[in-house]
């Protein structure tokens, strides 16, 4: 999608030495492979990244230095920077898992193409929208070539159900009641 193409930025994140990430994988969590999608469980939402190499991922972050990368505050911006970071640095103590859940629905692109497309995006400023272009849309586009966010789809479905329930209650409250004798 065109909205992922942006302008170059000079802010590069330089990954350091391995740390907690290696320990986690040694404790039974499978080590991600290049092109795997990483779901990070933040309070109230999930952040997404794509595994590239050497315990490093690419993900969307707020372009503002005031906000922590991948924080909920980034939803208030209409721009994001594509960052290359150590997975440990993106986790901020949160749990994570490899989640290629759309593999049963879409055929992933070849790994070399996923990695090539992903690396081409590093340090670019892209359009960001919580509903139409968030971190899950971004990684799904890189892995599958499909711009999709199940997190947004679920929220919209639940919102529609709630709106339907409210509308039904309003209609019931204004419906004339039968007269009692």
Describe the structure.
This protein is of the alpha+beta class. 32% of the residues lie in helices and 22% in strands. It has 5 helices and 7 strands. The chain has helices spanning 20-26, 87-91, 111-121, 135-144, 150-174; strands at 7-8, 37-42, 45-53, 56-61, 79-86, 95-98, 124-127. A 7-stranded antiparallel beta sheet has the order 1-7-5-4-3-2-6. A hairpin with a 2-residue loop joins strand 2 (37-42) and strand 3 (45-53). The longest helix is centred in the C-terminal third of the chain and has 25 residues, at 150-174. It starts with 6 loop residues before the first strand and ends in a 7-residue tail after the last helix. The relative contact order is 0.19.
Topology, element by element:
Layout: E1 7-8, H1 20-26, E2 37-42, E3 45-53, E4 56-61, E5 79-86, H2 87-91, E6 95-98, H3 111-121, E7 124-127, H4 135-144, H5 150-174
Antiparallel strand pairs: 1-7, 2-3, 2-6, 3-4, 4-5, 5-7
How do you describe this structure in short?
With 181 residues, the protein is of the alpha+beta class. Helix content is 32%, strand content 22%.
Order of helices and strands: EHEEEEHEHEHH
- Rg is 20 Å
Number of helices: 5
The helix fraction, in percent, is 25-40%
On the 0-100 scale, what is the average pLDDT? Answer: 77
Instruction: State the end-to-end CA separation.
Output: 66 Å
By secondary-structure content and strand pairing, the structural class works out as alpha+beta
Strand content: 15-25%
Largest sheet: 7 strands, antiparallel
Number of strands: 7
Low-confidence stretches: 1-20
Task: State the shape.
Answer: elongated
Spatial sequence of strands, sheet with the most strands: 1-7-5-4-3-2-6
């Amino acid at each position: 999608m065109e909205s992922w193409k942006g302008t170059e930025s000079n802010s590069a994140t330089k990954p350091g030495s391995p740390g907690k990430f290696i320990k986690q994988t040694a404790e039974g969590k499978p080590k991600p492979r290049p092109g795997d999608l990483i779901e990070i469980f933040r309070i109230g939402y999930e952040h997404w990244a794509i595994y590239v190499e050497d315990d490093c991922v690419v993900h969307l972050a707020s372009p503002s230095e005031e906000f922590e990368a991948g924080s909920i505050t980034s939803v208030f911006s209409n721009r994001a920077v594509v960052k290359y970071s150590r997975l440990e640095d993106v986790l901020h103590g949160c749990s994570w898992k490899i989640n290629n859940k759309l593999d049963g629905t879409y055929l992933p692109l070849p790994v070399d193409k996923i990695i090539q497309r992903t690396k081409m995006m590093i340090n670019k400023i892209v359009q960001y929208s919580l509903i139409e272009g968030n971190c899950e849309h971004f990684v799904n586009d890189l892995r599958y070539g499909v711009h999709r966010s199940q997190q947004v789809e679920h929220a919209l479905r639940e919102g529609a159900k709630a709106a339907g329930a409210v509308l039904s209650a309003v209609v019931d409250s204004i419906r004339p009641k039968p007269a009692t004798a």
